[in-house]
Amino acid sequence: MAFPYGSTPGSDGPAGETYAVALVRTGDAGPVAAVLRRLRFTGWLGAPADGWLPVVATSATVASGRRGIVELGEALPGTVLVLRVLADRQLALVAWQDGDERGRYVSDPSREPGADEDVLDDPLGVSSAEDFAAAGGHPERAGELAELLNERLDPDNVIESERLSRILRLLELPTWLVAVSTLPRDVPTGPSARSLTRFGGGLTGVRGRLFDLVLRPVRRRRPPPPVIADPPSSSGMDPWLL
């Protein structure tokens, strides 16, 4: 289920997957499913487990209004932690609380599709570690999380899924999320595909699959906005660096 996300600058290091998940802290899938239907979501909805409900993307644009997984997270109720891995060369994290943004991080802004050549590759948003740790239910681990977020990975030997695995273990979140790219097959060490609900344009079943076929080319032409709208570049300093 790995999906294209536009041209990603840089091709060094081992090839990797692109996948995205919004984790909602809730034991009730009903309100989340209602939002997914209203926004014509395309992707997978898991069952609540250990207090978390996974919403898995199947494309860059997952809902109406040019929403990617980050923008969808803003619309979901309660505490939401968005995780996006891009070609295993970039990790993005965004935390929401009832639509209010609490933190935003990108491991390498220069890897964003469409990024200018002078965009810096330094991790951005490490200071949000406290917000991510709090959203994950372990505020006492903010320091360890900040170290993980600030680490510069060697692209020849380490992929971002490895960093994400360490983050998930640290915050005691479902580690099988790094394998969601195997959908629609069963997720290794995770739930079976049959236990997840597949949405297509907000619908399920055969109608959802047919609607997805109609929506797919339209949404492919309308990618979501970048995670960081105005990343710092070598041509000038930026407040994010302060």
Description:
The structure is a single chain. With 242 residues, the protein is of the alpha+beta class. It has one domain (19-241). Helices cover 25% and strands 19% of the residues. The chain has 6 helices and 8 strands, in the order E-H-E-E-H-E-E-E-H-H-H-E-E-H. It has helices spanning 29-38, 69-75, 129-135, 142-150, 160-170, 205-220; strands at residues 19-25, 43-45, 52-57, 79-86, 90-97, 100-106, 197-200, 203-204. Strands 6-5-4-1-3-2-7-8 form an 8-stranded antiparallel beta sheet, sandwiched between helices. Helix 3 crosses helix 4 (142-150) and helix 4 runs antiparallel to helix 5. The chain starts with 18 loop residues before the first strand and ends in a 22-residue tail after the last helix. Residues 238-242 have low confidence and may be disordered.
Strand content: 15-25%
Helix content: 10-25%
Please give the count of helices: 6
Mean pLDDT over the full residue set: 90
Runs with pLDDT <50, length 5+?
238-242
Q: Which H/E pattern describes the elements?
A: EHEEHEEEHHHEEH
Class per helix and strand makeup? alpha+beta
In total, the number of domains comes to 1
Tell me which oligomeric state these chains represent.
Answer: single chain
Distance between the termini: 38 Å
Whole-angstrom Rg: 17 Å
Q: How many strands, which pairing sense, and closed or not: the largest β-sheet?
A: 8 strands, antiparallel
Bulk shape: globular
Region (Disordered): 222-242
